[in-house]
Design a protein that fits this description.
Elements: H1 5-18, H2 28-35, H3 39-51, E1 56-58, E2 64-66, H4 76-84, H5 108-126, H6 130-138, H7 144-147, H8 153-156, H9 159-165, H10 167-173
Antiparallel strand pairs: 1-2
Helix pairs in contact: 1-2, 1-3, 1-4, 1-6
Amino acid sequence: MRLSKTDIYALKTLGYLGTQPPDRFVGSEELSRATGVRHTYLVRILAALVGHNLVISKKGQGGGYALPRPPEEINLRDVIRAVDGPIAPLACVSLNWPKPCVEESRCRARSVVWLKVRDAVLESLSRVSVADLAEDFRRGVDYSECLEHLLPASELLTRRGLRATGPTRRRKAKGLG
């Protein structure tokens, strides 16, 4: 599992909603201002969250968005699934989007690594709730710094990206290569 910009924005949005009184609906413009997420992007994120019953929406006067239940009852496992889909590293170990593999019964990596990775990530995410995000929001932690630390797939696979972390790069920097 690798976090995306959309994940970070969803966490910021839920953190803000988690700070609101239970009966208050927040308009998308206010949410955009409070989180710094572009309105057009925010509306797509909200649609995904509404579609998975992690946020409710109300149209008309006094409408907007709110949490459907207390923030302590909404965990990050469900949020990440709503925004990104599978959490499992491979479809052959996915609980909600499984794809059978012909090597499943013989594959040691599946049982020794990938099932354990999936379970550990699911367990960790299920222990963190929107209440935790709301506490961060109250403290002024808005996750913007996280955007600078995302691991872009395109750079991870390039020759330059591989060299940047390898011993050759360090040797060249010291004038040895």
